[in-house]
Amino acid sequence: MPTTHAVFDDDGRIVLSLGGFVVRIGERVLLVDAGAGPLGDVGEAVEALDRSWVEHGGLLDDLRAGGLAPEDVTDVVFTHLHFDHIGWASQAGQPTFPNATYRCDRRDADCFLGPDAMDETMFRLRWGAMSARDRLAPVLDRLETWDRDGSIAPGVDVRRTPGHTPGSSVVVVSSGTARALILGDVVHCPLELTSPDWEAMADMDQALARTTRAALLREVNGDDLVGAPHFPGLEFGRLLPGEGARQWLVSSR
Ligand SMILES: [Zn+2]
Fold this sequence. Notes:
By secondary structure, the chain is of the alpha/beta class. The chain has one domain: Metallo-beta-lactamase, Chain A, CATH 3.60.15.10. It is about 20% helix and about 25% strand. It is built from seven helices and 16 strands. The chain has helices spanning about 60-65, 85, 105-115, 120-125, 130-135, 190-195, 205-220, and strands at about 15, 20-25, 30, 50-55, 75, 90, 95, 100-105, 145, 150-155, 155-160, 170-175, 180, 225, 235-240, 245-250. A hairpin with a 2-residue loop joins strand 12 (about 170-175) and strand 13 (about 180). It starts with 13 loop residues before the first strand and ends with a strand. Zinc ion (ZN) binds near residues 82, 84, 85, 185 and 230.
């Protein structure tokens, strides 16, 4: 990915990516979130939302550019089960990552896959998106859920941060005292980091999402690398103290 993505494009629209992150720990290759899937799998509406410009569809190409084949992925970790985070989980009824264990919080599995699963008709009608039930059906036998905060690989922890969905989680990657936070959809856009009165409209429980986001932002300090699957170009940045408002600085590392 080029490191030139701004929060706004030249027409003043917010830039969104729909993507995921690779975390390599020893022999393990973790893919944190799996984008919206192949371009044809979602409607054109996703590509040009009213006030946004959306980049997606290139996850497998990006993996290949990083020297990784789908077979190399050992873990697919979902921050939550919205269609734009599970899109590459399967293709044509087959697991995209044939050697991977797929992982998510149990509360999202209950919410999207359980007997009383939420109705995703709205996502299908609005975005042309496949439901979580359909997308994840080919990988259900390799889906493992977590019930509490903790480690899923050496140096990789998940932490439940509910509100956007019941089992929305943040992934924390740490080494010594350094850490990077992958925020899932707790934060959709860097603007929400610097202007807490901005918020996305997609939170299932908006009040809880607001409380969760505020607590997380209080905890984040200027040394933390922060990224999220909808940040422009999937770039990490740092949240620095500033006069009045905090400043967002994209990191080149
Ligand atoms: Zn999302």
